[in-house]
## 1
Amino acid sequence: MPPTIIRDLSDTSGYWAAIWTMCPMPDIHVICDAPVGCFNLVGTAVPDYTDAVPHIENLTPATMTEQEVGGKGTSDKVKWTYDNLAASGVIANKQVIVVSTAESEMIGSDHSSLVTRLGVGTRFYYSNSLSEDEWAGRDRVLRWLWSEYGAPFAGDVAVKPGTVNIIGPTYGCFNAPSELAELRRLIEGAGGHINMVYPYESHLAHTPQLAAGAVNVVLYKEFGTGLANDLGKPVLTAPFGMHDTTEFIRTLGDLLGTRAHADAFIASEKKGTLQAVWDLWRGPQGDWFGTLDVGIVAGLAHTEGLVRFLGDELGMKISFAAARPRRPGDYDNEGIRQHIHRRAPTFIFGSMNERIYLREAGSRHTNFIAAAFPGPAVRRAVGTPYLGYRGCVYLMQEIMNRLYEGLLNFLPVDGAYAAQRNPEAPAPAASTEQNGNMPWSTDARQLLDRELEKLPYLPRISASRQLQMMIEQLARQRGLNEVSAEMVEIGLVQSRQ
Amino acid sequence: MSEIIKLEGGTSQGAPCKLHPQSMCPAFGSLRILTRIEGSHPVMATDTGCLYGLTFVTHFYGASKSIVAPTLGTAELMSGEVVEGTRAAINVAAKEPGVRLIPVVSLCVAETAGMPEELLPRTVGDAEVVLVRVPAYAIHSHPEAKDIAVAALLNRLAEREGAVRDKSVALLGEVFPADPLAIDAVLRKMGVSETIFLPGRSLDDFRRVGRAGALAPLHPFYKESMAVARSWGMPIVGGAPVGVSGTSAWLKSVGNSLQLDPALVQQVIDEERAKSQAILDARPLSGRVLVTGYEGTELAYARMLVEAGAEVPYVSTSIGQDPLTLPDEMWLKARGTKEVIYRKALEEDVAAIDRYAPDLVFGTTPLASIAKERGIPAMYFTNQLASRPFFLSSGLAATVDFVAGVLTKGERYRWMQEFFQDA
């Protein structure tokens, strides 16, 4: 069977997972067994735009060139890199981890014995980059970190009652600062105290302290459950939507013995944070949600969470929902692309890829809202969560403002201003003398109707009038008495330009 | 394929160790060019981590273009399915509307596993299939990968039959969109019949270039592409229309290569010189600037800034030293530049900040952030400097004006640094 074809890959590899999971911890220094590209992309070019960090400072390549690939192997280069890092003082008091890349795996580099001859404690991590994706990769790295640096030293770590670990985020996790802030707020609202946020806000040296957490909450359910299970305490996943968030707070209250505290928090949230949802629901805004359709492409937690809140709770029609990693039956990018080309929904939560497919389809009426990587996004403000109670408010607010934006773009503006800017442009259709409606041939009418069907409901109302006027104008210019299908085709081409 | 280059060379006593080389993934340079061409639908042969990173930056800095690739994991690589998978991906790309070119971008793991060109189709339907080999371990910098891509397209597409249009010139190098208009206008005044700018959006430009009267690479890393032109016997115009002296010399070379009327050429040179000189007289630069990007164009920028009055003690770039870089290097060193570093690493640039205490730094993102941590005004060379008009008097005005503006912003950088220094 020939290899399957990937279109616009959504999920990166185990190597990226390793770097992005290890490097948030400042007392790690990673040497990647990599050509310059694998260093630059993972350490600078991409985290500039996923995490808005200038570069990952605790990452150094053992830069692989033709000599190493051509038979020399990379051991000397790794040792040279280690020695020079040591001489520069950068790795004093740090744990050094040598990580394999696709190319080093391709040439069979295995440094598990080399690292024993480098500084004490230096380890080799085989990232399995040719086989493992970023989700399985992150899960395995977290378990490896626990087994190497945590479990062996956790024997006398006592459980601290009432404390909670948050597993995840790493670098390259969509919306991490906001999701983390909201999750922390929910946990504390339920009466818990944060023990560790691992690895995002941790030090490697503190890894054994994971054993002190009474409950583990997995932030991104696409990875981290492995470590949570290894820790052997109750495991929860971060909640999206009002129903699941309420359930999460109650359950956590029960687990921590703070149920009364949790119930009081829920009650105060209904009067506070969630009052906005209640107001929007009762106001004219709430009416819209049941009329809107949405496509969702995101990590597993965000996909399931957005379906839960937007679909189950607000009643939006889910046009498609594809998780990363894909669940059985989820669209791959080819399927998503075809769906968008066929008919784009009013809203798409997704990545750069969906944006490209929208542009290919000329779908200017679809509102795109970022919900996943790949794609450049600054998400460092902590006020834009998708999860938890605040996530409900933020999502409703964001969707409504996008609708307003679309409506404002469709309200008519007097055509004389366009004429003033560009005297060469043809007069706007509405201002011509023969402004009566023209007869349309059946073919022409059906063609226009079919085209309008592809538009989301809201913009369809205005677009239909605009297109009709523009096509009639074309027909008049050509001296026709009736609008033909050919005129519609020409008009549609012009309208897409 | 480029020769083997020792990257850690130059670790002599006292020199900083080259631990962190500075380049985008080299292959990005080729993808940027190949995705922007109308009707071009690239196939990437590589592993998933590479594919993710390169499509990420290409979809941001190149074009909004869907990219297909065969799955190349352990199973496929070890069972020799690289070619089979690539052929299947080519067939998928061939279904895109309006497809005319399918570049096969072959990267580290595919090159290591082996990608024999003769096993790929030369054409599919109306589309040319062109193999572009850009393994990062062998190319070393993304500007040089641009050259590999252009050379591959020239080799395949350039049309050599028919009469040479002897008063036309092909200009080679990615430039700001206003630059081709300005260069074309000035060259036509000298008697040039037409200009072709490569690499652009049009595949036909790669065909037409085969009958141009001369090739003028505007950047010093188009080695392979120049070799293709030389093999046709096409004259090459060296240098670039940068600053006052650079522009005069370049216009003269174009005139000589195309045998234009010397009096007319001199008249245009004088006009441009007067315009440029007036710009520099009106707003001379003053301050010490480090020019340390990784676009391969840094020497030319340094040269312009020096001519405008700035002190540029240190210039570094990602590309290798080459006869093409020598004229600018010698020009700079004769005018006070102390160091020109090729295939640079972050350590060298940081040491230069320590050594020269600059007023302004144009650098890679890591370097710019390090300069800002010290309260020194700094910007990402690629986004801020390399993305403005640059050539002739109009480019000089735009670039010098911009740099002059940034040089007045020191207070803000110091304030930010003071505010955050205890963070």
## 2
Amino acid sequence: MSKASASQTAKTMRQLSQAAIPILIAAIALPLIGQIYLALFEPQPSANAAALIGAHVLRALPALILAGSLFGLVRVLREYEAGRFLSAEAGAAFKRVSAGAMIALIAHVAAAPILIGLIEGKNFNEMMQADTFSLCIMVFCAAMLTVGALLEDAARVLKSEHDQIV
Amino acid sequence: MNTAIAAPLARAQQLAQASSVIAVVAAIMLAITAALDVAAPGLSALPELTPGLEGTLALLHILGAQAILALPSFILAGVCLDLSRVLRAYAAGHIFTRRASAGVRKAGEGILWAMAFKCLLSPSLYSVVAEHARGNVFNLRFETFDLGLIALGFFIMVMGRVLQAAAALKAENDEIV
């Protein structure tokens, strides 16, 4: 793969992600809007609408955080598109995406289930959703965070060496 | 080299070293937990099984069905091991190399495979093996959060591919110089 084709791949992926991420957000948000509508205008008898809406929002929130953090990848791909494969901006953006994914996972595994459990009056054992699969995805995100930090710092060092030579 | 600039890199390399160890530990723990998930139903069914070929086949059937459900966890354990290799390379200072970039790509692909098995392939295969496909074979199980994870895996795979191409270019340039 030449530099031009690597940049072209990055450009195609950037365009694809700019189109796909809003669709992803819509796929998460539209059912949520439907659920909120039902809770507000067609409530079940003896159901607390506010609590129901709160639970629906909390259930969708981790996915929305994850989808929102993916927008940062557009910045990474834009740097690659410009041929700057080892840039501090790309590394920092990648680090931010990984941090966003980590926050989303913590919200998915712990924060949202606990808050939903408190709203619905469940006990602690019923609240927690931490399975090994989710924990390993967390390890994956932590590793990606390290990769982002390393790419960012390596780019800084490279730039500093280059500046010294110049 | 400017030491003030190089210090964060050295710290990040130490972090990569620690993360690679954590990734290996996570891979081992995940593999053990998944293996226990496979073995537990078989062990609990053991007293009810008849001795001989029929009982052995029934036990294998139970273990096989559970192994299908545990496949995504085994794939993720492999991803963690791949990542530990990438992080070890980074810790050794081999940051912009073809091998490390290929590792990032493989990790993204691994996440995609794990999600494919978790959401579609494992539930469908399980319905064929354990439930003899009563009803619908096409069994899709996923939450909205899984969509985000699939997108994340896909973009990491693409990033790895671009980094791999860029690392190959750098290697070519270094050879010329």
## 3
Amino acid sequence: MRKPLRNISRVLLLVGFAGLPLTLAVGHEGHHVQCNGTTINAVKADIQAMGEGEARTTASSELQAAQEMMTKNDIEGCKSHIHSAMEATEK
Amino acid sequence: MLLAAAVVAIYAGLYNIAADVPHTQPVYWLLDTIRHRSVVTRARDIVVPNDLDDANRISKGAGQYAEMCSGCHLAPGMKRTEISQGLYPRAPELRRGTDLTPAEQFWIVKHGLKMTGMPAWGVTHDDELLWDVVAFVRNLPELTPDQYEALVKNAPKHEELMKDMEMGGDDNHTGKNGHE
């Protein structure tokens, strides 16, 4: 009786862990970030519409960093900075 | 010489007017300042009704806002829409509050703004309906998503208000409040 229970627990645990990356991926889908001129321009337009303040400063510096990364062909770095810039524009 | 260069640049189509390429900061500042000063000057003499806190007004404004404004200006708990992401300049997210006075907001809602996508609602709506929208927008930053939903759900339907306007209005549409 104990063995089947243990097996079920293992299966459930396995399923739980298997689903974790998917859950995390969905959690980050709020921003579908791409590193290209269109996205950078879109964030620039968002920043222009922001009032002066800390959030605007953060968004601007993050976007500048993203542009530098793009110039260096560091696409993952670029995406990461664009993501941060987008988050700042939503504060 | 400078004028000639400007004329050549204009006719050569050098300036990119695509909405997905932002203005340079000086051009953006110039247009934004022109727009702001124009609104401030023209809204100066507008008499603001003294009942913008009236619950009935706010309720009427909620329904109209959901119908006419939320697609671009969004609302509490609402994700950015496709149109709000594509507009340039960006339509302000009104749940974040505003520096504009009620008179300035009324003027913008009534007359619209050139080259922004903001229509002149005064062409189809009377002043009282537009003040209802202003009354609601003043309250928007204080609303939670649930409160917003509840207000919109219980608000008079837009079509009913329009029909009412065309028939001459109810007690709140007597036109005795502030107008331009």
## 4
Amino acid sequence: MAMKKSTGERIGITVLAWLVAFIIFFPILWTILTSFKSELDAISMPPKFLFFNWTLENYTEVQHRSNYLHYAWNSILLSIGANIVGLIFAIPAAWSMAFAPGKRTKDLLMWMLSTKMMPAVGVLVPLYLLFKNLGLLDSLFGIGLVLMLINLPLLIWMLYTYFKEIPNDILEAARMDGASLINEIVYVLTPMAVPGIASTMLLAIILSWNEAFWTLNLATSNAAPLTAFIASYSAPEGYFWAKLSAASTLAIAPILILGWFSQKQLVRGLTFGAVK
Amino acid sequence: MATQQTASAGRALVSPSVILLFIWMIVPLVMTLYFSTLRYSLLDPDNVGFVGLQNYTSFLTDPDFIAALINTLVLVVSVLIISVCGGILVALLMDQPVFGQNVLRLMVIAPFFVMPTVSALVWKNLLMNPDSGFFAWIAKSLGFQPIVWFTNWPMLSVIIVVSWEWLPFASLILLTALQSLDEEQKEAASLDGAGPFSYFGYIVLPHIARAITVVILIETIFLLSVFAEIYVTTSGGPGVATTNIPFLVYKQALLNFDVGSASAGGIIAVILANIVAFFLMRIIGRNLEG
């Protein structure tokens, strides 16, 4: 608060802030620590904090026993692939809304957003049956398609807000020089909007990576990403906490790092610009 | 300004996305609506017939549905209260100029990036397991009997896990809103001798009121469809203690193979979400004007 504070107060607030942050972060920290324990140390009571036999065994075991890399590769393919295809649709759409708006542009944007708000269970049944009949269940193509479609409104919306910040004059100058529309988008707009496109991609990748309704319901093994792989640890066949932790650490580490870079975009993207 | 030519180009470039989203949204929804009026079980696929609203009446009078509806509301409201109240406190704390502020912020936001299946299983096993979990150790150290979380307090356990996932989101959004409070206003308040509570009530709260509304609406939309956390921890049980509407629909469709009834449940979920979406869209729309 705005009031001048004594040193004591300041130290108190600092300690409190660190304590709160530590408690919130603790489950993640504990998972990372447990991933380096033997299975026996992982369930030991009282728990072992730092003084245990550190081992990398779980990380190699997870790969040997359950082919971790297969699922990780699926996660990478799905989250990046789906959103690259999404961008191919979203960039022209956002260009059109930002630089050639018509009377209905605003309604169209709002309508696109509203598709984001439809609960997935509302369409689970027909989609499951369609996928089953078309042989798309457990296929990378089918799941990628769904991930692409659920993120498309967000991609368009975020790109639109970034494109709006680019002065129209520059694009018009290119047009005067006789650049075709495709050239204008590919060579003029896209390079200028790289930061915006990158942050949009980042958020979309994070959301796809963690998507756990469709991936759990439509994938079983072939196309299953990490969300489904981790879910397989819920089977109550004994304690595999250290392996669960190693698999979890590997599954969340890349996205945690990406996420930390994209905090600002997260606010913009997830509130659809309603909070800046 | 848009010329004739760019306007038609604009329409051409936006239409692929519009068509895709239209198909994605309308076709399955119409199919759900259609299925919801049928007697249609995958176990007996030859015996399909029109039954009108019977699926709705049986779904709505099913005690499991009433339980799922109540569970959904309990889950949404509890997580909202915890994450918004907690989020305000955390945001106020993170807004203070403390040592290592940036690192603190990274630690606080981290849970939001953890995939739901990981959060749920880590909490269920590493933390809440009554024999070897971390909480059991704390309870024993303090001389209490460890709580058998997911057996005796299933809904509370799910609420705790989901709150942990959403508290960071609320904190981050509210912190962003807090940071846009200008220095002059802060100084004016301190010159007027405002105490911390009146400062919070008259300056801070009105300033972040809209951000709070946005957090509530967005979280509600996501919380109405919580699925993975329940799927990997309790499978809706014990009994139907943690079955919410998404899980009930999933159970009807993919475990009981009752397409008709599951579709009716899906439509009910859509109606519920639309009530919330209506208000959220109005706020976003108002912002788009400005």
